[in-house]
Amino acid sequence: MLNLRQDVQFGLRVLTRSPGFVVVAVLTLALGIAVNTTVFSWIDSVLLHPYPGVGDPGTLALIETVTPGGEYLVNTSYLDYRDYRDNLKLVSAVAVARFTPLSVGAGGKTERAWAELVSANYFDVLRVKPVLGRTFLPEEGGDKAGAYPVAVISHRMWQNRFRGDPGVLGKTIRLNRNELTIVGVAPPEFRGSLVGLVYDVWMPVTMATAMGTGDGTLGFRGT
Question: Taking Cα atoms as reference points, which of 58, 78, 183, 73 lies closest to residue 131?
Fold first, then answer.
């Protein structure tokens, strides 16, 4: 009951700043308490469906961002994510992701791909284990922009671009003119956390500015 009271008090404080947002968050939290769930905060406003490669998707819940006028926002700010991560006591974990298109390669050999900028615990929350290497370390999810230029690539990219080379770990991949070190390969059945898109790259959310998605992702609320 103490934790519940703390969560409610935190929600009321947020309510004075953004009433629409907290109503949806409190409703989602209630669902999370009822099913003893892990809360996963998707950036894109979609309903949760079973995802290939995700362990026990029925234990995941959604936190959405809604403006005071009732408009659903495509993106939740990083600062709001940190508040929920640090203040919600009755959930196991809160992760965050943001999808973005990017260019892979250099010169005339570039191709377009979809990527997700994610919190360090993203793969742990989804219970996704790499087939090669590792996912992200806690320090790689810190708040310093661009501090850890590392990436996990999809199994498809590993096979197609790197021909399944087991020595791919430690190699660099050029993404939007930035060199990132490959630290892991996702399992073949895992496609990411947004229905309708197939992702090939995951990187720390603090790489957002370097990837050209804008400072608002990290520095402002409700963006």
Answer: 183
What's the token pair of residue 94? Answer: 């809160």
Rg over CA atoms, the chain = 18
What does the block give as tokens for 162? 């790197």
What is the DSSP code (8-state) at residue 73?
A: P
Q: C-alpha dihedral over 119, 192, 213, 120, to 10 degrees? A: 10
pTM for the predicted model, two decimal places: 0.72
Pairing, β 150-153 against β 178-185: parallel
95 in helix, strand or coil? Answer: strand
Can you list the alpha helix ranges (DSSP code H) found in 66-220?
78-87, 122-126, 155-162, 216-219
Q: CB atoms < 10 A from the CB of 140, how many?
A: 19
pLDDT digits (tens, 9 = 90+) for 49-78: 456 677 776 667 667 666 677 776 656 677
